[in-house]
Amino acid sequence: MASIFPGLGWILGFSFICSSLFEIYRRHLLYQDPIAKNFIASELYRTAYHFQPTQHWMNDPNAPMYYNGVYHLFYQHNPDAATWTANISWGHSVSADLVHWTGLELALTPSDPFDISGCWSGSATILPGSKPVILYTGLDTVSRQVQNIAYPKNLSDPFLREWIKPRYNPVIEPHGRIDAALFRDPSTAWLGRDGSWRLTVGTVIDGNGLAMLYKSKDFVKWVPAENPLYYTNGSGMWECVDFFPLGEARGVTKYMLKVSMFDVSYDYYALGTYDEEGGVFTRDDASSTDYRTWPMIDYGRVYASKTFLDEAKQRRILWGWSNESNSIADDVAKGWAGIQTVPRVLSLDTDGKRLVQWPIEELESLRGEQIHLQDIELETGSQVEVRGLKVSQADVEVEFELQSLIGAEPFDANWIVDPPKLCREKGAYANHGGIGPFGLLVLAADNLEENTAVYFRVFRAEGSYKVLMCADQRRSSKRSELYKPASGGFVDIDIKKERKISLRTLIDHSVVESFGGGGRTCITSRVYPTILLNDNTHLYAFNYGTETVKISELKAWNMAQAQIS
Ligand SMILES: *[C@@H]1O[C@H](CO)[C@@H](O)[C@H](O)[C@H]1NC(C)=O
Ligand SMILES: *[C@@H]1O[C@H](CO)[C@@H](O)[C@H](O)[C@H]1NC(C)=O
Ligand SMILES: *[C@@H]1O[C@H](CO)[C@@H](O)[C@H](O)[C@H]1NC(C)=O
Ligand SMILES: *[C@@H]1O[C@H](CO)[C@@H](O)[C@H](O)[C@H]1NC(C)=O
């Protein structure tokens, strides 16, 4: 063809170059214009398999439940804008597998004197005879926080679309010394051996966070118990308290108390025992009353988490809200804000001393093309690229093997209360440590100008070793106005015995959700790399410590898009 029409190839080529140049120019223009930039961002930073509504604002997950073969997820939602406002409603989505979701009409909207200023967080309980009921916080006509009930209008509707609020609401009002502006988020109720229901609601008195306990025989009239279920000294307001039995360790069922600490925006948990008669929870670890020493659900951007018992598979599943790390103006330009973590199965570690979280197995149905690497020596100062996948939408599982612990840096006991500070000061790149930093560089530019480092570092403490896990977002994007912290927590693992540590990282455009040490420590980051604009992201495994680390195995998968309408 080229010999017959010598000019044509050239013309086609020229027009191709022109349109490519134009495309580059257009992207350049869009990138320069802050609103247009966010328009691009709104598409590229949306998640493919982390739950989010099609538009507008979302915060806490509410009343997750499994009922008649359908999973329900409700969520705090502003149906009109991407910002949080006074008139919050309940969004509602249903699913058969916890992966693909169908959005339904709003389940609860401010409508009655007891919730006219907002329908805030709450939980579901399935009553005997298979009757679901929701308890939630309403903001009444004078913005008092009161606890209300709602029932499905039609139990034959497989999706429970419509909910009825009985006239006798509210069922619990602020009382005694409780501040009416700090009293919210009723938990799922549980039935005692005496035939009475119990539930807990979070509040604060004199700066001390409290999980108030209430009892009821008929689910309508609720009476405060003599003592709170639990409280701590000086932690500030507790939100979204969750309380439930978890697993069996040495034949004993543990109880888990989860509280969302409003002042610091983190979710903490404690494992212990529950004395039903006395109505009190006792922590197993009594070594410190300082709540800051409690383990966290997630050491990154996860808050207001909530669990439910999945009767279909007899497992306890946790959802958590992950908020944006950009500005409110960015959210407005994007038209959306807030995602949920992937549903995580909760279990106890074999010795019953800590929580283990792991993505639900259903998520693996989205796994596509796979990369499998084995036995790679990561010498000091080296990195290995994981090629052949779309690494902005992937699931990565890697196991690191430590040949020796001799080079571990000494640990200063003062570091125990502030792992993020340790992550910030030690850093992922400079400051070559002993054992580590080693881990993954995700959503990375080929010159590493942008990347999010998820990594470990091993320290030698008195008679044991400490393993630090960090997610350093400080280089996650060239945009300077974003919130880009270094997050971190310790991994409670006997590294001397195991000599191995695993990392699973779910990468989904603007979220990096990581599970360290088999799910003992989790860190979720929200990042907005500019390289996503050209879909030119890379994934590396790295070791910038002074000791060689081996990757015994690395598996990575492309993740398909979940259907979320
Ligand atoms: C809440 O809704 C009411 C009624 O629609 C409206 O008058 C009020 O301005 C709204 N408040 C906010 C903060 O959006
Ligand atoms: C209840 O839901 C079922 C199933 O969707 C429907 O057939 C029935 O008409 C509904 N009943 C009422 C009173 O709306
Ligand atoms: C509670 O905290 C205050 C100051 O934060 C302290 O003075 C007090 O001793 C603490 N009480 C207990 C029981 O730990
Ligand atoms: C949401 O994100 C910001 C950073 O953008 C953070 O400072 C804030 O504490 C977060 N809020 C909650 C409730 O998690």
From TrEMBL:
Organism, as annotated: Asparagus officinalis (Garden asparagus)
Residue ranges of domain Glycosyl hydrolase family 32 N-terminal in the record: 50-359
Keyword check for Cytoplasm: no
Glycosyl hydrolase family 32 C-terminal domain boundaries: 362-558
SMART domains: Glyco_32 (SM00640)
Gene Ontology MF annotations: hydrolase activity, hydrolyzing O-glycosyl compounds
SUPFAM superfamilies to which the protein is assigned, alphabetical: Arabinanase/levansucrase/invertase, Concanavalin A-like lectins/glucanases
This protein's name: Putative cell wall invertase
Keywords on record: Glycoprotein, Glycosidase, Hydrolase
Entries under CDD domains matching the protein: GH32_Fruct1-like
One GO biological process term: carbohydrate metabolic process
PANTHER family in the record: BETA-FRUCTOFURANOSIDASE, INSOLUBLE ISOENZYME CWINV1-RELATED
Domain of life: Eukaryota
Name of the coding gene: aoeh2
Family (UniProt): Belongs to the glycosyl hydrolase 32 family.
Upper taxonomic lineage: Eukaryota, Viridiplantae, Streptophyta, Embryophyta, Tracheophyta
